[in-house]
Design a protein that fits this description.
With 324 residues, this protein is mostly beta strands. The protein has 4 domains: 80 residues, Immunoglobulins (Immunoglobulin-like, Sandwich), CATH 2.60.40; 96 residues, Immunoglobulin-like; 96 residues, Immunoglobulin-like; 34 residues. It is built from 3 helices and 25 strands. Strands 1, 3, 4, 7, 8, 9, 11 and 14 form an 8-stranded mixed beta sheet that branches. It has a 5-stranded mixed beta sheet with strand order 10-16-15-12-13, with no helix packed on it. The protein starts with 7 loop residues before the first strand and ends with a helix.
């Protein structure tokens, strides 16, 4: 490839590039040297009145230009500059918030949040920002940056955001960067927990009240639970078994009697606030089972009215309720 002064050569990064530069005439012949930053030319080739120098290199984005330099004892030094326009796909995508780059952003509820996505490539890429529900929330073509603002951030805004960048050289999904947005806010019941307000159970059965918190606070180990019946605090004993781990807490009530029916509440707390969820535990009259007459039924009838038979029937009624 022979380039004239001031010309521009467009080449894709990592591709092999071959250039040559020649000078004709002069006595003695001029000496030639060609460089592309740190890539030096191969030895000169002389043919009578022409000197030609060749260079072959693997292009990278640092190869901004090549210089062909001629030196002669009479004409002195002459130079020709060739600009290299190196095309490359996005490889360095990053999230910034303010002047800080990172993969984790912690904010308080109701604050305004601004974060930017930057991508370096040639030509400029198309940048897309996706929210924690895999929804595209922002997109701009042929740009090096894209920003997004959330006014009055809430717990529902917490999660993982993804920035992707791609240009005409990109194959596949393109370059990605991820940002985890953590919102400090009071815990709240999960959607499934909100549906569980009335619990029905038979006497002499065990029942479990389950609570799942929706807590986006960055220190989950500081999420604590407190269980109450009416206004009486409940503790672990033979009647009540409380187990809590992470964002889940269970209250098991053993061997229910009439005094166990009523209103229960759980308070979930973190260092930012608290929330309360109520349960109503109510009794239910046993319904006649419609199961067919089986060998197990025959066994219960043959035992008679012993205490063992009563216990078996109660246990099966508990199972019958929980399976419906």
């Amino acid at each position: 490839m022979i380039a004239s002064y001031g010309s521009t050569i467009q080449v894709v990064e990592t591709e092999a590039l071959k250039l040559n530069c020649s000078v004709t005439g002069g006595k003695p012949l001029a000496t030639l040297r060609m460089t592309c930053l740190n890539s030096n030319a191969t030895p000169s080739v002389t043919k009578e009145t022409t000197v030609t120098v060749y260079i072959e290199l693997q292009v990278n984005r640092n190869n901004s230009q090549c210089i062909c330099e001629s030196n002669h004892i009479i004409s002195g030094t002459q130079k020709i500059y060739v600009r290299l326009d190196v095309l490359f796909q996005p490889r360095e995508v990053r999230f910034n918030f303010g002047n800080v780059a990172g993969e984790r952003l912690i904010v308080n509820q109701y604050e305004e949040v601004t974060f930017q996505c930057f991508a370096e490539s040639n030509p400029h890429p198309d940048i897309v920002i996706w929210n924690q529900r895999d929804e595209q929330i922002k997109m701009r073509k042929n740009t090096s940056s894209l920003h997004h603002i959330i006014h009055r951030v809430s717990c529902s805004d917490a999660g993982e955001y993804v920035c992707s960048a791609r240009n005409m050289l990109t194959n596949g999904q393109g370059a990605l960067s991820k940002l985890v947005l953590i919102v400090r806010c009071p815990p709240c019941p999960s959607p499934d927990t909100l549906k569980a307000t009335k619990i029905t159970a038979l006497p002499y059965c065990d029942v479990t009240l389950q609570f799942f918190a929706q807590d986006f606070f960055d220190e989950q180990k500081k999420t604590v639970f407190e269980w109450y019946k009416q206004n009486v605090s409940l503790e672990n004993d033979t009647k009540y078994i409380i187990s809590s781990y992470g964002l889940k807490s269970n209250l098991v009530i053993k061997n229910i009697t009439n005094s166990d029916y009523g209103r229960y509440r759980v308070i979930v707390r973190n260092s930012f606030g608290h929330d309360t969820h109520y349960y109503e535990l109510q009794g239910k009259a046993p319904q006649q089972s419609t199961e067919p007459f089986t060998a197990s039924t025959l066994f219960r009838v043959s035992v008679g009215v012993s205490s063992f038979t009563v216990l078996v029937i109660i246990m099966e009624l508990c199972f019958w309720i929980y399976t419906r």
